[in-house]
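Morning!

As promised:
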Amino acid sequence: MKESRTPRAAKSLFPRLGMIAGTSLMALVLPATALAQAEEKPDANPVQIDADGTVHVPAMSVPVSSFLTDEAKKYLTQHLHNMQDRESGTLPENGVPFVMKPYMVSAKAMFPLVREEVTIAGVAGISYTPTQGIKPENRNRILLNLHGGGFGGCYPGCAELESMPIASLGGYKVITIDYRQAPEHRFPAASEDVASVYRELLKTYKPADIGIYGCSAGGMLVGMAMAWFDKEGLPMPGAAGIFCAGMTLEKKFPGFGGDAHYMTAAVGEANPPVEPPPPLGKGPPPLQYLENVDVKDPLAAPANSPELLAKFPPTLFITGTRAFELSSAVYSHGQMVKAGAEADLHVWDGLFHGFLNNPAVPESQDAYKVIVDFFDKKLGK
Amino acid sequence: MKESRTPRAAKSLFPRLGMIAGTSLMALVLPATALAQAEEKPDANPVQIDADGTVHVPAMSVPVSSFLTDEAKKYLTQHLHNMQDRESGTLPENGVPFVMKPYMVSAKAMFPLVREEVTIAGVAGISYTPTQGIKPENRNRILLNLHGGGFGGCYPGCAELESMPIASLGGYKVITIDYRQAPEHRFPAASEDVASVYRELLKTYKPADIGIYGCSAGGMLVGMAMAWFDKEGLPMPGAAGIFCAGMTLEKKFPGFGGDAHYMTAAVGEANPPVEPPPPLGKGPPPLQYLENVDVKDPLAAPANSPELLAKFPPTLFITGTRAFELSSAVYSHGQMVKAGAEADLHVWDGLFHGFLNNPAVPESQDAYKVIVDFFDKKLGK
């Protein structure tokens, strides 16, 4: 491409963008040091672009999204405060992190369910069925939930919060399982456990009638498990849901890759942005469960294999613009589409990683409806 | 929700997020002043959260997305430099902004087409048909493109760049029109022009066989025009594409609302982030074409009316994580889904407003395929 520079042309395309950058506004937007620099050289832009495209972004203040409901604005604010207070931590109690206890109270009040402890193929789990009964059209169907928790905890907390709304609102039987995690276990122990449970479910259910979904590590594990099914010669399930996650891994530093690793740290989790990226081996360690994994291995990061993605069933992605998996989710969705698979992406503006764990928020309820409608439509009739 | 604070629990959910915020990394990530503050008070987080949820984000450096192709990395870098140089502007030449000239060269080389000047219902336009002929299955179909340019220019530049790839790769006849814009005209002049042309097309084509799409202002105009069709009692077209845009407007300051207004300014357009938002009336003016519009009027911002959205045909949204319309696009998509309409969202990580104007980039080509496949599938058979 030619080195063509054309500010006025650029302004004419979207006039106000040019104006936002105008000096009249600079006094409002810049920290004192950047402003001093800008004043020395009137045309200096406090945003600097390196030759390799790296953008140096000045400090900024970002309000809650104008698109959020009042409940979600409060929820986001509380979440950011929760993530920032590192002084008086409380360990999870009975597998339910303290921060999630109010969500659990809401879930138990909102979703009347019959809860049963189960063991399938030697793997412990919980079965949820609606108190009013499984919907007639779902009698031959089942959903398998793979819970979040960074492959190192949050059972049964996350497992219950992810299963209850879908079982209740969808009229489904949902099974959630306590797959093996770190610190005791490593990849691919969880994939093996999911495959064992799935193999057992296939004795009762047609593959097209089985849906599989999860959030966060559980969302990643959905992709990993389907890659494992393929390797084992098992048929694909009828539909899949990858929530709060994607199907990529990054080696250089922890994260799923892409823009979101930088852009959502502060606004999604109240963490300082990581910049510049730490050199290899100097950053924080990756997830313990994945510590020896080749990040390009399709069994761990299926987005690396178009051939594999082409075999995946219709897959629903749910993420948010403040979620650190945003880039991985939208990229994985795009790679599935490019590979010829069916994939459906839904992004909530202003919300963060795992937002849908709190059922008291309208945006979470909207997400549950998207999930239920998806499985209703895509699973076998 | 309870005021519950639980750092350790939060860490256990996704251990590395806690570690990213750890002090060992702070020396790498913080500007000197923030670091000094952090050292004074060892636990101080340079990210500050206000009581209303506003996040104060320290300066950061964001590299190009790891998910981009090499071509797109170069494209983004060049785009950021183009947007930043405000000294030696060049006005559009014959309606083609200087920055887009290389894209036009690529488009003319890549897409063999028959180009004809047309006038439909008194509105000037250009018709494109593939040199090798319209695909047999598209003989009874037509696509209407509404070009970008901030409702104030970029005809025929944007019009041609948006029409050529779809006509050529899809085997479609594409008409693009020179609808009325600012500075001479105001809302709803463009909607009226689109309706006049559409009414004329309906004499030859069934509504289900007509697709309508656009990028940037043209994407906004797709929503506005369909709202206008509804008001006029015209049938909906078979399918719609809202690219580089959404269906919302914001009053407080220019923009489409949501997170993207803040988060993408620097990394998408090399503009300083707008913060704090200017008080009412003190920010830069809104788009001239829309200056007297009620931002909640569904004829201008259809996302405000679920009843209207429910009548819309299947609609494709295309955006990027560095695009200032990101929030508006994902929110509008979500509102359509919530209203019971059919909508399909595709987001390119690391790319900016209107990225698909450059046909030489693989990501643009992937987007064209998504567009063509969508119209192939959704238009009448």
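The first helix of chain B runs from residue 7 to 13.

Hope this helps with the figure draft.
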